[in-house]
Amino acid sequence: MWGGRFSSTPSALMEAINASIGFDRRLAAQDIQGSVAHSAMLARQGIITEDDRAAIHEGLQRVLGEIESGAFTFSTALEDIHMNVESRLREIVGDPAARLHTARSRNDQVAVDIRLWVRDAHDRTDEQLTALMRALLAKAEPHAATVMPGFTHLQSAQPVTFGHHLMAYVEMFARDRGRIRDSRRRLNECPLGAGALAGTSFPIDRHQTATALGFDGPTRNSLDSVSDRDSLLEFLAAASITAMHLSRLAEEIIFWMSAPFGFVRLPDRWTTGSSMMPQKRNPDAAELVRGKTGRVVGSLVALLTVMKGLPLTYSKDMQEDKEQLFDAADTIEIVLAAMTGMVQDLEPVPERMAAVAGAGFSTATDLADWLVRSLNIPFRDAHHVTGRIVSEAERRGCTLEELPLEAMQTVEPRIHQGIYDVLGVENSVRSRTSFGGTSPTNVAEQIAWWRERV
Ligand code: ARG
């Protein structure tokens, strides 16, 4: 491609470190799409002839067919997907192929290829997040009133409902979807036509190619166009946050299904056995969702590190963007699919959740609130009184509900029978009617609100 200036071929090591065809072949369809748009524009602008354009288009379709069918022979000597495609095009159509690269550089070529690819990745992720939100909504709906223990510091805190807990993840994945949509909107500008870095002297029409490729318009600065990888970084950042959310849910599923909790069952199809312990059912899929977070976050950090010291404009360092993008996109795709499947198949065990919901004196706040409401005790003092009642229950080895009235009255004589109305977990949950709180009516409303938006 540049033999004119060179007197010897690259050493084998140079070829090995330099070639990207091993991974950037995944850009073949986008590369050909970009070349079709570019050559159509060149012809319309009178820069190449209509005959050349027709030959190029026909040839590119053949190349695409060969790649899709697996008949194409990729060559490492040809470095990357751009030169592999162009070289094969030349074999097929001859001279017109040599005019395709007029007013174009591999720098703006790879920039547009990768942007088309990452745009599709955004759309896939958006769809998958939507499917996961739907699965969570469907699982939450029948459990708006199913009581479970709520934790802070992983210690019993206050009872909540299982539906409310699942809906917390709907909020998280909705924000993730928002980030993806936001980034998708920002990336939709076309860098093709920036040339190597400075634009071109040919009378190209960048608006034409931008429209043909589904972009809102062309990017405005040629230097930025060839040196910017923000769309990949934003995808990796959004994917990292999604992976972190998925990992937290995976972690909860893992301990929910362990015997001491027993809050959920996960069917066999999501678990594996142990080669030694016959009783085991291991939540490998959930563990891998949790574990693969490291790859996605790793990709983000790797690409940020590649980019951070680069002067304008293109440097070959940037070739390192692709493996990070592809790996993170593949990973987020499989973990989103696996999590959606697990959520669909998750079988909650309400009896177990209810049995544990009252543990750890989880309605102590309700007791304190009752003292405030019924006896007009200031909250700080009510907190102290409740603390003493809790120690008394602990000393006797009973729950707050089981503690006799006289025992409470020795701490605060004005306490009366009415206290027992708030000590049960069902009542506790039902009373949390503040906006966003866990009361079953609230949860049902939240589910309905999201149903309309998902
Ligand atoms: N394979 C290269 C990459 O992925 C394509 C761009 C090469 N440009 C250049 N000036 N060598 O970044």
Radius of gyration, Cα only, in angstroms? 31 Å
Alpha plus pi helix count: 20
pLDDT < 50 runs, ≥5 residues: none
SSE series:
HHHHHHEEHEHEHHEHHHEHHHHHHH
* Overall shape: elongated
The CATH topology of the largest domain is what?
A: Fumarase C, Chain A, domain 2
**Could you give the distance between the termini?**
50 Å
Largest beta sheet: strand ordering = 1-2
Main sheet: strands, sense, barrel: 2 strands, antiparallel
> What percentage of the residues does DSSP assign to strands (E)?
under 5%
Second-tier CATH architecture of the largest domain? Up-down Bundle
Helical fraction equals 55-70%
How many structural units, i.e. domains?
3
Helix and strand content put the structural class at: mainly alpha
The H-level CATH homologous superfamily of the largest domain, spelled out, is Fumarase/aspartase (Central domain)
What small molecules accompany the polymer chains? arginine
SSE map:
Layout: H1 12-18, H2 21-24, H3 28-44, H4 50-69, H5 81-93, H6 106-140, E1 147-152, E2 155-161, H7 162-187, E3 189-190, H8 206-212, E4 217-218, H9 222-227, H10 230-256, E5 264-265, H11 284-291, H12 293-307, H13 321-345, E6 347-348, H14 350-357, H15 364-375, H16 379-396, H17 405-411, H18 420-423, H19 425-431, H20 440-453
Parallel strand pairs: 3-4
Antiparallel strand pairs: 1-2, 5-6
Helix pairs in contact: 3-4, 3-6, 3-8, 4-5, 6-7, 6-13, 7-10, 7-20, 10-11, 10-12, 10-13, 11-13, 12-13, 15-16
The chain binds arginine (ARG).
Residues 20, 24, 80, 106-107, 110, 314, 316, 318-319 line the site of arginine.
